[in-house]
Specification:
- The structure holds two protein chains of two kinds.
- In chain A, the strands form two sheets. In chain A, strands 2, 4, 5, 9, 10 and 11 form a six-stranded mixed β-sheet that branches.
- In chain A, strand 4 (31-38) and strand 5 form a beta hairpin.
- The radius of gyration of chain A is 13 Å and the shape is globular.
- Chain A contains no helices and eleven strands.
- Chain A is mainly beta.
- Chain A has strands spanning 2-7, 10-14, 19-27, 31-38, 44-50, 56-58, 64-68, 73-78, 87-95, 102-103, 107-112.
- Chain B has strands at residues 5-7, 10-13, 19-24, 31-37, 44-50, 53-57, 65-68, 75-79, 88-95, 106-107, 111-115.
- In chain B, strands 2, 4, 5, 6, 9, 10 and 11 form a seven-stranded mixed β-sheet that branches. In chain B, strands 1-3-8-7 form a four-stranded antiparallel β-sheet, with no helix packed on it.
- The chains are: A mainly beta, B mainly beta.
- Chain A binds chain B through residues 9, 32, 34, 36, 41-46, 49, 51, 90, 92, 94, 96, 99-106, and chain B through 4, 31, 33, 40-45, 48, 56, 91, 93, 95, 97, 101-110, 112.
Chain lengths: 113, 116
């Protein structure tokens, strides 16, 4: 069985500040891990994914995430927030042999000027 | 490649009515997924198809819900005798299983259902 836990349903940062969105996973098999972003009234867009290659994964829009097996974490970071980053972010996990995704409850990111 | 498309984008219906949503996946994708998303929650898995075969159904999918993918291309999700608790965004996603599988799901923009 697999699951993800996103710590903090809301995160607020100032424009230019570091963004850190937390995700911890549970998986009985080697996981694939994903971060998706959702803008209001839109579907989900893939930001980045970990599929057992490099543990530091770079994605679109300047986001990156690091897979830490010892901490069962896959936190999302961005060095400098932009107003356009305001959205809902979802962490998701799948088993390496299937692409059925299990999502976390999401973190809403607000960026203040 | 036009992406995953869903129709209608919005549906308002009265309790007890039937509704049907359609999803057209990316053309070469053989897997198709349905998810449900309620306000403030992450998407919850409902069911998925590989080609025309429905391979898994969540316990969330009550007997009022039925999904089909008759020719392995588009899919429909029907909800019979709708209830107010069915109000949600219904998301469709597709992927390519097999050697070129990247594990990524490609999502449509969703169909928002409001049951009055």
């Amino acid at each position: 069985a697999q699951s993800v836990t996103q710590l903090g349903s809301h995160v607020s940062v100032s424009e230019g500040a570091l963004v850190l969105l937390r995700c911890n996973y549970s998986s009985s098999v080697p996981p694939y891990l994903f971060w998706y972003v959702q803008y209001p009234n839109q579907g989900l867009q893939l930001l980045l994914k970990y599929t057992s290659a490099a543990t530091l994964v770079k994605g679109i829009n300047g986001f990156e995430a690091e897979f830490k097996k010892s901490e069962t974490s896959f936190h999302l970071t961005k060095p400098s927030a932009h107003m356009s980053d305001a959205a809902e972010y979802f962490c998701a996990v799948s088993a390496s042999n299937t692409d059925k995704l299990i999502f976390g409850t999401g973190t809403r990111l607000q960026v203040f000027p | 490649d036009t992406g995953v498309s869903q129709d209608p984008r919005h549906k308002i219906t009265k309790r007890g009515q039937n509704v049907t949503f359609r999803c057209d996946p990316i053309s070469e994708h053989n897997r198709l997924y349905w998810y449900r998303q309620t306000l403030g929650q992450g998407p919850e898995f409902l069911t998925y198809f590989q080609n025309e075969a429905q391979l898994e159904k969540s316990r969330l999918l009550s007997d009022r819900f039925s999904a089909e993918r008759p020719k392995g291309s588009f899919s429909t999700l029907e909800i019979q005798r709708t209830e107010q608790g069915d109000s949600a965004m219904y998301l469709c996603a597709s992927s390519l299983a097999g050697r070129r599988n990247t594990g990524e799901l490609f999502f449509g923009e969703g169909s928002r259902l409001t049951v009055l």
